[in-house]
Amino acid sequence: MATSMRRALMPLHRMRFSNLKNAEASLEVRYPLPFVVPIRTKKRYFVPPAVGVKGKAAASADQEAKARAAGVVLRQEYMERDINIACTAGVFDPYIPPEGDARLSSVTVKGLKQRTDENTKPSLHCRIRKLKEHDAEFTTKVFPVKAQEIFMHSLSYDPNQLGNRYKTLRWHFVDKGNMFGQVTVRMHSRQSLAVYDRFGRLMMGSEEEPRDVLEYLVLERHLVNHYGMWRLHGKIVPAWAPVTEPIVKTVMILGPELKPGEEFEGLNYEVPKPKAVQWHK
């Protein structure tokens, strides 16, 4: 009986002894391992240059050859630009204003001769008939009023034309029916213009004093297009035109160096006036 009880309690004694060993092992002190930070240094090995490859062009050609050998077709890129065939690139028959225009009266001999030469040109009536074939409403009496309306409308939407700054327009003759019509209008009007800088100072012109402005406007229409309209195409600036008014720029003028204790008012320093210089953008 005692032997059988001993055999039954032996597994419990072993389990208790193993738990005590594990507890003693967990109480052992473990010291931290040394922490090493790797430091990046320079490459000590030598990389030889590629043989037979000169520049990026040769490298790209080598890549294309490898791609073709592998059966991969590379798509070719085309640098295409937008073109517009609804208008021409410039004035194909510029009008040369005679010297003294807007100063010669029709009553004088020179002014009457100038009017006679303009109205007796043989090609003038032929061109007007050609315009009327495609635009039945075109008349030389009503068109100046319409040209003035188009000119005023284009000035009110002038910032929208900045989108064509980096575009290129190239015109080629496409077909017989692709015809354009251009009309040069001499416009003598009164306008007022004032340009202010960022500080609010007047740089050019005046709002209260209107001036007489003589302009030669070129209007164009795509005659083949039934929905085409007359649009302002450009201006003609004659060689004898007066020089525009110079722009007064706001500049900073350095004054004299003041010593400690001095005042600017006591020096009686005269500020030099800048000279008007003609400049362009």
List the defining traits of the structure above:
about 280 residues; alpha+beta; Nuclear Transport Factor 2, Chain: A; single chain; three-stranded antiparallel beta sheet
Shape: flat
Task: Specify the structural class.
Answer: alpha+beta
CATH topology of the domain at 89-157 and 179-251: Nuclear Transport Factor 2, Chain: A
Low-confidence stretches: 23-27
CATH architecture call of the domain at 89-157 and 179-251: Roll
Class of the domain at 89-157 and 179-251 in CATH?
Alpha Beta
Strand content: 15-25%
How would you sum up this structure, described in words?
With 281 residues, the protein is of the alpha+beta class. It has a domain at 89-157 and 179-251: Nuclear Transport Factor 2, Chain: A, CATH 3.10.450. Helix content is 28%, strand content 16%. It has five helices and three strands, in the order H-H-H-H-H-E-E-E. The chain has helices spanning 2-26, 55-69, 109-119, 122-134, 143-156, and strands spanning 180-196, 202-222, 231-236. Strands 1-2-3 form a three-stranded antiparallel beta sheet. The longest helix has 25 residues, at 2-26. The chain is flat. The chain starts with a helix and ends in a 45-residue tail after the last strand.
